[in-house]
């Protein structure tokens, strides 16, 4: 069994008027990302939605010094974007679909993701979503350090920083040994 981890594909990160949007780059990957998720779900693989969660009054979170407020609890900005939201609404409740909150860049940091993957015998993961050079990258580094085989479909990841995006793609394959296709 494999897993796909959908990272931060939310309104705030993808919509044109999102609080911290990847804009056109994030919108361009929607079809490929949704196709990947659907493929994994239809095969019976584990589908994880790892979503950034912030609270406006959290003065201790380090990101408040780096980025504007985004993905705030109970906000429209935190909702899955576009056709991914439609697909999620169709598949949620399935035993192989897991929606999780994360408070740091990596989906592994401070979460039970590693436990959930290991209890299912998963050793190989595919990462999709945004931002390639922030949350996807940090999740990939943690996955590498935990011994997972990593796949990155480059048509299903995006960033608001083209140079950072390219750096991350190179880092995935050249430093983490990920399969970038």
Topology diagram in text:
Elements: E1 3-7, H1 11-14, H2 24-28, H3 30-42, E2 46-52, H4 82-91, E3 97-102, H5 113-119, E4 124-130, H6 132-145, E5 149-152, E6 157-158, H7 162-174, E7 179-180
Parallel strand pairs: 1-2, 1-4, 2-3, 4-5, 4-6, 5-7
CATH secondary-structure class: Alpha Beta
Q: Can you tell me the overall shape?
A: globular
CATH fold call = Rossmann fold
* Overall helicity: 25-40%
How large is the count of helical segments? Answer: 7
Calculate the mean pLDDT score and round it: 93
The CATH architecture category equals 3-Layer(aba) Sandwich
CATH superfamily label: Isochorismatase-like
Along the chain, the helix and strand elements come as EHHHEHEHEHEEHE
Major sheet: size, sense and barrel closure?
7 strands, parallel
Question: By helix and strand content, what is the structural category?
Answer: alpha/beta
Please mark out the parts with pLDDT under 50 across 5 or more consecutive residues, or reply none: none
Number of strands: 7
Number of domains: 1
- Based on the structure, what is the oligomeric state of the protein chains? single chain
Alpha carbon gap, first and last residue? 20 Å
Specify Rg, calculated over alpha carbons: 15 Å
> Which percent band covers the strand fraction?
15-25%
């Amino acid at each position: 069994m494999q897993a796909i981890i959908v990272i931060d594909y939310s309104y705030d990160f993808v919509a044109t008027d999102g609080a911290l949007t990847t804009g056109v780059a994030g919108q361009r990957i929607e079809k490929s990302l949704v196709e990947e998720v659907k493929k994994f779900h239809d095969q019976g693989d584990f589908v994880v939605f790892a979503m950034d969660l912030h609270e406006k009054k959290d003065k201790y979170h380090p990101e408040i010094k780096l980025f504007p407020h985004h993905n705030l609890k109970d906000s429209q900005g935190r909702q899955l974007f576009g056709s991914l939201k439609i697909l999620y609404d169709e598949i949620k409740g399935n035993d192989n679909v897991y929606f999780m909150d994360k408070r740091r860049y990596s989906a592994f940091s401070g979460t039970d993701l590693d436990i959930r993957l290991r209890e299912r015998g998963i050793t190989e993961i595919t990462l999709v979503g945004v931002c390639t050079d922030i949350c996807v990258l940090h999740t990939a580094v943690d996955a590498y350090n935990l011994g997972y085989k990593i796949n990155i479909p480059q048509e299903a990841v995006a960033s608001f920083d083209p140079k950072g995006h390219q750096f991350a793609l190179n880092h995935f394959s050249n430093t983490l040994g990920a399969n970038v296709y």
